[in-house]
Each structure stands twice: as C-alpha cells, then as structure tokens.
Amino acid sequence: MPYRKAGYDVRCIGSDIGIENYHPPKNVYGIIANPPCTQFSFCKTTGKPRDMVEGMRLVKECLRVIWECQYKLKSKFAKETTLKFWILENPKGLLRRFLGNPAFEYHPYEFGDNYQKLTQLWGVFNIPKKTPITCTMPKFDRLKTKEIHYEGYEHLTRTQRRSICSPGFAKAFYKANK
Questions:
Q1: With contact defined as beta carbons under 8 Å apart, do 81 and 28 qualify?
Q2: pTM for the complete prediction?
C-alpha cells in the first residue's frame, strides 16, 4: 500500500478488531473503507438469499467512522474538516441503491493492471489519473492468476483474492490524494 510505504500510520480494521468496535484517533489524514460486498454483489446468484440489513450494517459502521472524523473542524469557524479525503469502495452492485450514484468508477486495466472488475467509489477525494491498457485477461481468470495476487497467493481465499485493490489504482489514488 503506497500510504504505508510513504510513512503514514495505516490501520487495517478487519474482523480481528471489528469496525463496530473502532473509534478513530485525532488527526486522521484519510479513510479508505471497503465493507464486504457479499450482499451487494451482482455475482451473488446462489446460496443464502441476500440480507440487505446485514449488508448495510457494516456499511453504516464505516460511515460512522468517517462521520466521527468529519465532525472535527480545522478551527472553530472553519469550512473544512481535518479529513483530507474519504472513500467507500465496492464492486458495481446494489450498494448504489443505498448510497446513490458513485463519485467515480474504474476497471483495474484503466490503471495499468491487466484485469476487469468494475469498482465504484463514493466519497470526497481527488480523482486519480487513468493510464489505460488493453485488457487481455478473461474476466474471471484474475481469481486464479499469481500475476495479480503475487504476495501470499497460496494462503488467500477466493474472497480475499477478489477483494484486493488493483496495485495500479492504489498508486494513482495515492498520487492524487497525498
């Protein structure tokens, strides 16, 4: 992750801590939230029926953390908060029914990574510059290839491999929002 490499204090809040138990410290620079897409994904076609209340539970917790940071103004009469950016990320799916149209959409190949996965972002952030390539990888091969998910590939579940951010997008986002 570019922010960690640049020396930022990056905190990954996952199942080990639980977003519902987390309260942000003072002076948070930015927030990248990616709640599970299981209930919202168009790929969900089998198994248990969708549970939108459960899907939104973690989305609401992500928004709560963002809001806790947004309450902090730069000064008593400031028109800006101390938070430089925030995004809530999810693959294209049903989440837009709850949050409205996203501020930005992208495929990883638009940032130099050879695969497709239409991803939507909501929030307040600078739009990263696209550097598209021609995508030659079939849509679902990205779940199998070590070319994309090289670190710890053998130890990742299918869900974990699907949730990894495109490295090209991560670098472009950092460049636009540092």
A1: no
A2: 0.86
Chain length of the chain: 178
State the CATH number of the domain containing residue 30. 3.40.50
| HEC readout, 74-85 | CCCCCCCECCCE
- pLDDT higher than threshold 90 for residue 78: no
Domain boundaries, position 133 = 2-176
C-alpha 109/C-alpha 87 separation (Å) is: 20
Q: Number of folded domains in the chain? A: 1
